[in-house]
Structure formats: structure tokens, C-alpha cells
Design goal:
Distance between the termini of chain A: 37 Å
Number of helices of chain B: 0
Shape of chain A: globular
Order of helices and strands of chain A: EEEEEEEEEEE
Helix content of chain B: under 10%
Number of helices of chain A: 0
Oligomer: heterodimer
Distance between the termini of chain B: 37 Å
Order of helices and strands of chain B: EEEEEEEEEEE
Structural class of chain B: mainly beta
Number of strands of chain B: 11
Helix content of chain A: under 10%
Radius of gyration of chain A: 13 Å
Largest sheet of chain B: 7 strands, mixed
Largest sheet of chain A: 6 strands, mixed
Largest interface: A-B, 24 and 28 residues
Strand content of chain B: over 45%
Strand content of chain A: over 45%
Chain lengths: 110, 111
């Protein structure tokens, strides 16, 4: 059962621009995570935000969480070519399981 | 650094063959997971294990089985491979209820 859905499905931006993607989910959560996947590789954890937090930063990443709207956003500032990847949100279904969305594919043009 | 390794990056098998995908983690994590990833569908959980010899079905367990005889190793078994099992298979491990650490993936093609 897929709880999270990312929007847009794909995003193309110029190097140096900001990239914003959104995640909506259906049921209450304890936390929400964002992962990155470079082409043909495994996922890498980027950031986790708990349900009692509204905003979190990590380097050029900014994540917000609005539990009333059941949505989260990931902002990548000053994008670089190396940011070209797919980005997934994941919500916890219970103590062990995560539910991943289908992802947003970001292309950063030089 | 946490390291999760998978036995093969690419694998080609024939319909009906028994296929073993191996995953090993070196961080003494309790929890291990097998996902498959298909375009447009994201990651779907096949099986997970929260302790040695313990396993639980995920969202799409049909056609798969798993084995966890040692804490560091979690194997995914396709008893009789079929073409609709052609996919990217991702293994992950987790020490807690939060972050999962993924292996590089195995791209399996069943002919």
C-alpha cells in the first residue's frame, strides 16, 4: 500500500536554481523521511522530520511538514549537476515498515 | 559507515529457475528489508525481518520467500522465476524505527 505521493513526477531546472518537490500522504505518521536515488543505484537517506517538527534543514536541503494538510516539501537550494537524481518521500506505517512514493525525478541542466 | 552489500548488480535468469538474492549488512542491525522497484510504482515491500529467523510478509510476497539464518544476512528467494519478476531488487537494513540503509540494488532480468 503506497501512502506517499510525490509531485511533480519530473522536474528540470538550471544549475544554481532551487528545486521544490512535494509529498502528500494519507494517514497519521510519526515521521517522514526523504531519500535520494542516483540512476540505477540504491537509495540514500537525506533527512528525517518528526511529526512534531515543522521545518528542518540539512546543508542545502530544507524540509517542511504540515500534518494538518498531510503534506511535506523538500527544497534543494542552489542546485548542482550532482543533484540530478530521483527523490522519494517515505512515511512510517508502523514500527518497522516504511511506505515510499513513486518519486520525483530531478534533472539539473548545466 | 554503514555498508549494505548485495551479491550481484546484474542478474539474468530463465523462467522457472530458482533464484537467490543475497544481502549482507555489517552494522549489526536488527531489521532487514527486501523491496522491488518498478517504474512509476516506487518501492514495494516484499518481506522484512526484525530478528534472526523472524520474517513478515510485506505488500507483495507472492512468488517470493526469504531466509534469515544469521543477523547480518537476509536472502530473497524466487522459487520459480517468472518474467513478471523482472525488476530492480533493493535490500535495506535499519537499526531502529527510522532510517533505512540501502544496498546498491540487483537488476534482475528473467527471460
Amino acid at each position: 500500500s503506497q501512502q506517499g505521493e510525490e509531485d511533480p513526477q519530473a522536474l528540470s531546472i538550471q544549475e544554481g536554481e532551487n528545486a521544490t518537490m512535494n509529498c502528500s500522504y494519507k494517514t497519521s505518521i510519526n515521521n517522514l523521511q526523504w531519500y535520494r536515488q542516483n540512476s540505477g543505484r540504491g537509495l540514500v537517506h537525506l533527512i528525517l522530520i518528526r511529526s512534531n517538527e515543522r521545518e528542518k534543514h540539512s546543508g542545502r536541503l530544507r524540509v517542511t511538514l504540515d500534518t494538518s494538510k498531510k503534506s511535506s516539501s523538500l527544497l534543494i537550494t542552489a542546485s548542482r549537476a550532482a543533484d540530478t537524481a530521483s527523490y522519494f518521500c517515505a512515511t512510517d506505517l508502523n514500527d518497522y515498515k516504511l511506505s515510499f512514493g513513486a518519486g520525483t525525478t530531478v534533472t539539473v541542466r548545466a | 559507515d554503514v555498508k549494505v552489500t548485495q551479491s550481484s548488480r546484474y542478474l539474468v535468469k530463465r523462467t522457472g529457475e530458482k533464484v537467490f538474492l543475497e544481502c549482507v549488512q555489517d552494522m549489526d542491525h536488527e531489521n532487514m528489508f527486501w523491496y522491488r522497484q518498478d517504474p512509476g510504482l516506487g518501492l514495494r515491500l516484499i518481506y522484512f525481518s526484525y530478528d534472526v529467523k523472524m520474517k513478515e510478509k510485506g505488500d507483495i510476497p507472492e512468488g517470493y520467500s526469504v531466509s534469515r539464518e544469521k543477523k547480518e544476512r537476509f536472502s530473497l528467494i524466487l522459487e520459480s522465476a517468472s518474467t513478471n519478476q523482472t525488476s530492480m531488487y533493493l535490500c535495506a537494513s535499519s537499526p531502529s524505527l527510522d532510517t533505512q540503509y540501502f544496498g546498491p540494488g540487483t537488476r534482475l532480468t528473467v527471460l
